[in-house]
Design brief:
By secondary structure, the chain is an alpha+beta fold. It contains twelve helices and eleven strands.
Amino acid sequence: MTHAAEIEFLRNLPRPDTIIGRRFRLGRTIGVGGMNAVFLARDQRLERDVAFKILSPALVGSREVVARFVNEARTLARLDSEHVVRVLDCGVTNEADAPSLPYMVLELLHGDDLRTELERGPIPTERALSWILQACEGLAAAHADGVIHRDLKPENLFLCVKPDGTEVVKLLDFGIARSMLVPSALTLSGEGVGSPGYMSPEQLRDATAADERSDIWSLGVVMYELLSGVPPFQASKPFDLCAQILAGKYPRLQQFRPELPRGLVAAVHRCLAVEPMNRFQSIFELAVALAAFCPGGIETTTRIRHLMGSHDGDDLPAFPLLQTVDAQAPTELAPPAEGSPAPSLRRRRPKALAQALAGLSLVAMLMLLARVFAPITSAAHIAEAQASVVRVGERVGAAAQELLKPIARASDNELPPDDRVPEGARR
């Protein structure tokens, strides 16, 4: 929005010190967008500061825009997550000599959005991944409720700082969020919604086709930008930008950060796959892939699994061996070629290992019980029983070693010669 347009926008909004609904006294403007403005306000009833978001007067004649505004308030009210901004109230202004405008009252956040953080300089890897995992937790709450965001970008991820210094990422702006339960809700066929550079390929083709994997793609763009300092897709013309996104053409992440673990690089690239079937299929799967690279990642992933449990049921895999698998392992995360059949993205190897070991242990236990409760008539019989148990134990151990070999091989984290980045490409 140009400065002149912003002035015209603000001219038609309620003035500072206006009291809305006999409760909220408006203060200074916090931010102005194309569709709404956000004021600092005082809730006089509860004596606390809040953020007061109000729809542009120029848009109140659009039933669809008003419906989206109301939809955002209702969506936020349903999502109970520390990583989603909370809505406290909503209504319509009813001031004399002024148009009636929809508004919502939000918790007041202290901090900056991730775009501001990016402009301040390089971000340590663990800190960036902590932010992404927190965003995953917020998205898990939304996806479990059947809501996709569709406009993830650094500006819509807000970094709050608590009094104790703890950083908390919150998702903002669900204005174009869509319910996966009602595919056509508030979206016209062929209508593009989102922000250029952060819109998934399927959103560019048809916004009604976007699902939770579109949010994963957009979050992958944000993650790439946080880790490299630059967005993966850059072009001066919108047509060229869309062509890059649809073709999946972008610099590999290791060109900017050759020291990053190969498994992490593969996870980012998988997020950016052109075809949704070749991405992570859920926020939980993405969180599992990132957890090993970030302190506290396993705890966050556990909460995400709990959030999505009612949505995906028992189909969500457990990850008891996550801490024992080498964080650098590239085998499970290597991005497939576009157009190839999508492999299972779930960690089947640890689950298969656990099942096989459990089966072998059960066999050993049954053989032991058979020997123990069989009639024993001599010391030789006892010795034979003991020898049988030892042999079964040896077989269980050998089988475990065979099952563990693929994981052991995956722990080799050296890049092959073809993947090494020339010195001139390093920062």
